[in-house]
Amino acid sequence: MKRFSQILCVAFLVAQVRGQNCVEEALNCDDPVPTIFKLGDQSCACNSAGHAGALKFLNSKVQVCLGNEWKTFQFVEDIEYGTEKNPGSSCKDIKDKAVGKQLSNGVFWIKLQGVSGAFPVYCDMDAGGWTLVFKAVSGVDKKIWDTYNSAQTSSESVDAALDVTNKFKDHYKNRVVLNWSSFNPSQAKVVLYTGAASQKELLFNAVGTDKLNWFSVGKLVSSSWTDIKSEPRNYFSIRGGCGGGNCRSFFINRNYGGCGVDAGWLVTPGVWCSWETNADHTKRVLYSKLSTYTDWNVKNNVGVADVLAVFLM
Asked: Are 44 and 34 in contact (CB under 8 A)?
């Protein structure tokens, strides 16, 4: 008997569903705004304030009556800021507009004013929103000065290059270096990394500078080395000392006096002295591991960075 009751119940439910009637709703144009659950292409005339707000679906578009005319809805996709379709102007700009969000270091998209096309950049968000614009990688058989000073970018859109490691074996430069004034930086920073960890930093005032003259003792704000401003210097420039097509670039040097007594703070080596041509130092980014300058011949005091990175803000 119990089983028979269950069968009757199911049969009753099926009968009810199968017996539903669909009643087509007729438009009543006497109503100010007819209520329709599924929009169709039929509508009352849009010719009075009483019809304002009426909707219809025509030619695959939703339209709304404004009282005296139909207007098509413009659906705007909510695209996250700092992406390819919605780029920022800098990493700092993206960070500042991420209200209520904690952004991590990584790749974002920017577009420079007056320069066509958006492009990806690495952003140091932890430090406040710094934009990576150049990266010299130790061990690469490609001249750093030539890469930095050329009229071309280098590995700009290579995903593997967009970090602060030396995993991608090429120097990196994006179009910010070529359009320095369009970016209009207020600060510049050089960071030396080993294993993605910062070893030394130099901070510069970049207001009113170009791609070369920002790197100078006059623009230096702070440094991991305490004596750069107090000690004499024979070089403090990106181009550095050049000869025969070779350069000691990003060069901050205290003195020459023969290879055996050369001393300084930072250099991407040339080809002239044993301290820069030995197997451990050739084509590497070298720096003083001390808080002061070092004799380049004292190997224990000379560090080798994986990367020399230039950031702007």
From this structure: yes
- Cβ proximity of 277 and 154 under 8 Å: no
Strand bridging mode 294-295 / 106-110? unpaired
Q: Tokens representing 251? A: 């060069």
The closest alpha carbon to 92, from 118, 60, 58, 127, belongs to 127
Distances from the Cα of 298 to the Cα of 14, 55, 200, 252, 274, angstroms: 92, 81, 18, 17, 12
Biggest distance spanned by C-alpha atoms of the chain: 112
Stretch (H or E) spanning 7: helix 2-18
Q: Give the pairing type, strands 119-124 and 106-110.
A: antiparallel
Tokens of 168: 């991608």
Residue 12: which H helix or E strand, with range?
A: helix 2-18
**Where are the alpha helices (H) located in 54-143, listed in sequence order?**
91-97
How many residues are listed for the chain in this entry?
Answer: 313
Q: Are 240 and 267 in contact (CB under 8 A)?
A: yes
pLDDT tens-digit series, residues 7-29: 333 333 333 333 334 344 456 67
Q: Which of 13-22, 51-60, 69-78 shows the lowest mean pLDDT across its residues?
A: 13-22
Half-sphere exposure of 10 (CA within 13 A, CB side): 5
Give which of 171, 85, 102 is closest to 133, Cα–Cα. Answer: 171
- Percent of the residues in the chain that have a pLDDT greater than 90, as a whole number: 74
Q: What is the DSSP letter of 80?
A: P
Q: Name 311's bridge partners.
A: 132, 189
Whole-number Å distance between alpha carbons of 66 and 52: 5
Contacts of 154 (CB under 8 A, 6+ apart): 147, 170, 171, 172, 173
